Amino acid sequence: MKVLKFGGTSVGSVKNMANVKNIIHDGSKKVIVLSAMSGTTNALLSIAESITNKNTNEATEKINTLHDTYFTVIDELLVHDHLNKQTKDYISSVFNLLTTHTHKAPSALLNNEIVAQGELMSTYMFNAYLKQEGIDSTLLPALDFMRINKVKEPDMESIKRNLKEVMDRVPEATIYITQGFICLDDKGNISNLQRGGSDYTATIIGAAIKAEEVQIWTDIDGMHNNDPRYVNNTNPISDLCYDEAAELAYFGAKILHPQTVLPVREDHIPVRLKNTMNPECYGTRITSDATENGIKAIAAKDGITAIKIKSGRMLLAHGFLKKIFEIFETYETSIDMITTSEVAVSVTIDDEKNLDKIIAALEAFATIEVDKNQSIICLVGHAIVNHDETYKLFQILKDVKIRMISYGGSKNNISLLVDSKNKIETLQKLNDYIFELAHQ
Ligand code: ADP
Ligand code: ASP
Ligand code: MG
């Protein structure tokens, strides 16, 4: 069985939903994972924000605007009277719930419940649409099987057990439809797998049912060799191995949620990235097979803070790094990059929540300098550290100031830290130096 995930754009218009229908309607048994319609999760978060700020009128206005958008889509999507009415009744119940929430005390739990409605609505609507088109499908409520544990990781044992149980209730089904992104936490409250989490839902399900393949259908022809939002002349990459895909996703390639490949890597379940608007295109295939050597792709992750830790007295004394790492461990903050010199250590973090406490603890034995608004530019490819063409990346040194370089941590990754205001220039120039010159 395959698992096919369709993202926000793929279910974001009636035309695209028709594409999805054509892609999935081939008679084979499959699980379909859907995101919320594009724009919905942002709109729901913004409603939650108004409620948090106790701005009931603003929240109500936003709820009404979103409600109208949904009713317009339903009228276009569902021409069958009964299905149109039934779906509007369901969607109205969702918006009534949101309206009730505007009068409740703000809380993180309430926000999670609000933001979960996007996937609940898109799956309901798409299921009704398939019925209208004469295609049999079965809704599997994600909240009946998708669980995360205390440390917010998927609870694979309980997911496997629960998913089997809900699928076994309708063994004859060909198309199972479920919500991406949403889950229950260890206390049974509604939670989610973070932004872009539907990709992760798909591979978690893929691992749980030992799928033959997981397909991530989106709005672009696979993983490109640089960020197409900022860089001209990027190209899709046909094959990646799990490690390469994991590095790119973790370091900012938005096409994949950072954790996407982790659940399926061990079982060697292939992941295909495909374009809903151009299904014939090969896209990208992610497997455990070794791929060509050399720099394959570049990605960038924003919102990075660099911390320079300088100590005269304890310098290079054994135990110095241990002391530093213990502080980051105490404040549950992971370090992405690290470089050392004779007089200082620089590390980067992407979570500033405990920055003040971390600085205070470090200042007990070191002098600290902090640079905010940094971006990690990550170059990924098999054995790039020793590759003949890799020197080309260092031409970038003549164009922008590099705050840190991490080379040799693994053979497959080289990371540069730059000020975020130089990110786009760095990405474009690296693209020109590495890919365009390489292909001349
Ligand atoms: P979906 O809603 O289908 O999950 P996303 O917006 O999450 O889609 O991901 C697809 C988008 O990721 C693309 O439209 C593209 O702008 C962006 N993107 C960023 N980096 C890359 C990359 N390296 N390759 C392809 N797309 C990328
Ligand atoms: N709807 C969620 C988001 O916008 C999850 C997803 O699209 O994957 O982040
Ligand atoms: Mg996404």
Give a verbal description of the structure.
- The chain is of the alpha/beta class and 440 residues long.
- The protein folds into two domains: 2-218, Carbamate kinase, CATH 3.40.1160.10; 296-439, 2-Layer Sandwich (VC0802-like).
- It has 13 helices and 16 strands.
- The chain has helices at 14-24, 40-52, 56-77, 81-101, 108-115, 117-132, 156-168, 198-208, 242-250, 262-265, 320-330, 355-363, 423-436; strands at 2-6, 30-34, 138-140, 175-179, 182-184, 190-192, 213-218, 239-241, 271-275, 284-287, 297-310, 335-340, 344-349, 367-380, 404-410, 413-419.
- The strands form three sheets. An eight-stranded mixed β-sheet has the order 3-4-2-1-7-9-10-8, sandwiched between helices. A six-stranded antiparallel β-sheet has the order 12-13-11-14-16-15. Strands 5-6 form a two-stranded antiparallel sheet.
- Strand 15 (404-410) and strand 16 (413-419) form a beta hairpin.
- Helix 2 (40-52) packs antiparallel against helix 5 (108-115).
- The longest helix is centred in the first third of the chain and has 22 residues, at 56-77.
- The radius of gyration is 24 Å and the shape is globular.
- Bound molecules: adenosine-5'-diphosphate, aspartic acid and magnesium ion (MG).
- Residues 377-431 form the Aspartokinase ACT domain.
- GO terms for molecular function: aspartate kinase activity.
- Belongs to the aspartokinase family.
- It is an enzyme of class 2 (transferase).
